[in-house]
Write a structure and sequence with these properties.
Length: 393
Amino acid sequence: MGRTYLVEESIGQYLTELSTKVKPYITGLLIGQCSPQRDYVIRAVRTPPKEQQQDESVGPPKLASLDEEWITTHASQVSRMLPGGLLVLGVFMIATPELAKDGQNALRKLIFSVEKSLSKRRLWKPAEEEVSDRAALQICSATKKVVCRTYDVQDPKSSAKPADWKYQSALTASWVALGCTVNVNIHIPLLATSPSHDLEKNTKNGLNRWSKQIEDSVFLINGQVKDEDTELLEGQKKFRGNTQPSTQFSDVKVLTQLCQGASTRSTATVQVCSGSINLRGAVKCRAYIHGNKPKVKEAIQALKRDIINTLSDRCEILFEDLILNEGPQKKNFGREYHVLPQRLFVPVAGSSVMLSDYKFGDEAAGEIQERFVEMLDQPVQAEDMHIAEDIST
């Protein structure tokens, strides 16, 4: 028996609209959440067109011209905009009938490329019982026939399995949001043996150590420690027949352990350092979880990943910005303060889920609006952008 994908109804209209614009083919990403029983697709986003694609209409159309790197870069950018609990669940392609035969092979290749690119950036490891199937959705632009298959991204030899694609209205109406503020004070020594321009690598190593601390933290949900295998909403009133997006919100406190327990033996090492990086500030984190009897451990895992992702993503964004503005050959390594980009949240039309982005202090609202249109094919009003935090350094 294959997997079932429950899909937000508006995605059907979005894909139908795209199929009227097909010039041999259109590709894109499916965004949503995996759960042991079924998967939820809450958004589909087309791949942004490349400027030089206009002059490609020479000779018969071929899927061989598919720009894999462009699509995986888009997936990496989009994954930064997803709060905890959401991920790139798969890829879709709308193609003309003559390309249909090669479509599935192209989609299979894309699924593995996208997953490889996304897993390279993660500072956390997937759990053993985690769903590793990703969706390949193919739509014929002429007949509008939809074919959904899945591939197991943990198995390079994986073959296609059939999957059900079912539309549903108000899919996220009963989802639960979890939010927390984490105070960050990370000290990362720069070893004298490592070249100073390896700041990015050193930062990643420091964040890796910190992420293990987050993994081992205790999470209080609405002031209580809950057993991981209990239902998240146990004892809470259910709102029947309510199809308006009205997220139940859980406030979470994160308690990190100050030192290792007596059972683990610690060995200190002395290393010669040429400097250090300090990351300080308070970060706002958020995760969403489906309303179908979610377990406490699913919710906590989603929030842990958001905490780890949001810090590593903005360090990545800062380094990209520094290289862009100052070049990689920067010589002066005195004491410097850099402000990490602030997090903001933006509502998704017709959904109770919010997406996220990062803004530098001097960035205008218009630039962020442009980014939402380019990356997520979603217009955003300036007044809908909620900046969640103060400035962090």
